[in-house]
Amino acid sequence: MNLRTAARGFVAFLLSVPALQGYPYWAVTYPSSNICALSGSTVDIICNYKYPKGHAVEKKLWFTNINHEPFDLKDDTDYGGRVEYICGEPKCWSYICTGTCTLRIKDVTQRDSAYYKFRITTNQVGGAYSGYPGVKLSVTDFQVEVVIHSRYHDRVQLKCHSMCDFPGLTYTWYRNGYQQHHGMYYIVYYITSEYRVSCAVKGSAHLHSPSVYAPETPSVGWTPPGVIEEGSSVNLTCTSEANPAAKYTWSKVTTGHPPGHSVQGQQLSFNTIQSSDSGQYLCQAENDLGTKSSPISIDVKYGPKNTSVIPSPPGEIMEGGSVTLSCSSDANPAADYTWFREHGGSVEELGENYTISNITTELGGNYYCEARNAVGLQNSTLMFLNVTATPPSPSSPSSMSTTVAAGTVAVLLATMLLVIFLLMRRKRASRKARGQGGRPDTREESPCPVYYNVSALTNRSASAAQREPIEEQDDPHYASIHISRSKNQEVPHGFAGALVESDHTEQVLYSAINLKRPKAVPDKLMSDTTIK
User: Fold this and answer.
1) Of 101, 69, 64, which is closest to residue 79 (Cα–Cα)?
2) I need a labelling partner for 287 at 20 to 30 A (CA). Which of 16, 134, 208, 356 fits?
3) What is the pLDDT of residue 442?
4) Does domain 305-388 sit in CATH 2.60.40.10?
5) Does an H or E element contain 62, and which?
6) How confident is the model at residue 410 (pLDDT cuts 50, 70, 90)?
7) What's the CA angle centered on 375, arms 369 and 380, to 5 degrees?
């Protein structure tokens, strides 16, 4: 017996309770009120009808709708030419005529499940009759029920069944499309993700059940697609082909640690995602036949945060020195930096570091940087750069020349003050003598003019200065200053006179000082004046 014959016999004689409706001369009966068929099979629904003799049959049809005028299934596009009527010629008796009509539906699907009714129309007024409630057609697939065997955790026990099970049916089992076994509707298989197992009634391989299998490697992603920005709403999605349907578990993976807290469901939702949510997540799909998982990494982008400026070296900067300002911020992606001076605009410097060499006091003030990336920007707080003037260095050439010049001036001033002091002392002594009533001509005459010799020796005390008698002259008085120096020592500019070397490397510097004697005092009296 071929498949069609088997299926036809199967659906035709599953239930033999007749469906009857009519009057003594009108009737429609169905041999079976319920028919169960497998998807893809051909189903025959049979009816018997009768009508009064003397009527001529004009139309025979099958329909499913009950709320409107019967609609012929041959004209229904949902059946797409899969419907065929097989009706014989009616036979008439004394008062009635009888006949049969079969509805054949090919390649049935679960959408074909419905109540099917037959209607006859004759040429007489009121000559129409429909057979209610009709025949219930149920279309089903063979299903494989997975039963975990309690004694074998690495095996599964499979059961093949459908709504149309019959006693005594023999089943064929298939693995990855290849026939494996014949026999009962139970079978045991090892758990493996590579197996796809199905079953069918023996002799109807093309009507086998859907395959059962462990989850395939999940496909993961996020919605909406594109760049994930902090504060947005994001859903992580996970999809895996599996039969029975897989259950999903999400968990976040920390490097070096097992997955953390898990969340059940095909989606993992973030209403307001944060930068701390960045990382790797694991989606696990599982059913009774196995487990598969896939990772997904998300990188949450955000604008610059905590932007700050650090100077190096810190603190006060001396004029002429160098300082480097460094800008840092927390940003994803990394920020680009632009430098600004308060009230001075951009300093036209880009980059994380800004170096100022040979700084001046005019460059002091408040500085800040701007951190910017594709998500946003942020300015740092103001950083005050304190630049102070640098005092002249003692070892510099200018300071050395200043020191030498100051020393020379000091020596000249000391010499001039000493000479003036001696002259004024001599003058006071002369006045004192006259004030005591002495006559100038009675005073003892000085045997010779007095010369004053001041000897200033380098690295000697002031006591080295002494008076020396000089031969009597009528010329003006001279004050001599002896300065001991080495032969290579330079004589300061501005001294008048002549230098004479002695055997003791001493040189005498003579400065001519014009002194006017008082007319009332004879020259002889001058010799008696002693300056102490």
Assistant:
1) 64
2) 208
3) 41
4) yes
5) strand 57-63
6) confident
7) 20
Report pLDDT for 436.
Answer: 53
Measured CA to CA, the distance from residue 146 to residue 242 in angstroms comes to: 13
Judge contact between 117 and 16, C-beta under 8 A.
no
Tens-digit pLDDT profile for residues 164-217: 766 667 888 888 888 887 777 677 777 666 788 888 887 777 777 888 898 999
Q: What mean pLDDT do residues 56-82 have?
A: 89
How much is the pTM?
A: 0.54
Q: Which amino acid is at 147?
A: V
Question: d(Cα 289, Cα 213) in Å, to the nearest integer?
Answer: 6
Q: Where are the domains of the chain?
A: 3-140, 143-213, 219-298, 305-388, 426-526
Give burial (CB, 10 Å; 0-12/13-18/19+) of 369: buried
Q: In what order do the strands lie in the sheet with 279-287?
A: 262-264, 247-253, 279-287, 290-298
Whether residue 356 is predicted with pLDDT greater than 80 in this model: the reply is yes
Instruction: Give the torsion through C-alpha atoms of 514, 519, 523, 526, to 10 deg.
Output: -70
In whole angstroms, give the CA distance from residue 161 to residue 212. 13
Class of the CATH domain delimited by 143-213: mainly beta
The residues pairing with 324 across neighbouring beta strands, listed in sequence order, are 312, 355
Give the H or E element holding residue 434.
Answer: helix 397-435
Separation CA 107–CA 124 (nearest Å): 37
171-175 vs 178-183, strand pairing mode:
antiparallel
CATH number attached to the domain at 3-140: 2.60.40.10
Burial status of residue 418 (CB atoms within 10 A of its CB: 0-12, 13-18, 19 or more): middle
Average pLDDT of the segment spanning 214-229: 93
| Kind of pairing between the strands at 135-140 and 34-38 | parallel
* Non-local CB neighbours of 372 within 8 Å, separated by 6+ positions: 304, 335, 336, 337, 338
> Could you say which of 3.40.50.1470, 3.75.10.10, 3.40.50.970, 2.60.40.10 is the CATH number of the domain covering 219-298?
2.60.40.10
Give the rounded distance of the alpha carbon of 403 from its chain centre: 64
Report pLDDT digits (tens) over 3-30: 333 333 333 333 333 333 445 789 999 9
Q: What pLDDT sits at residue 440?
A: 42
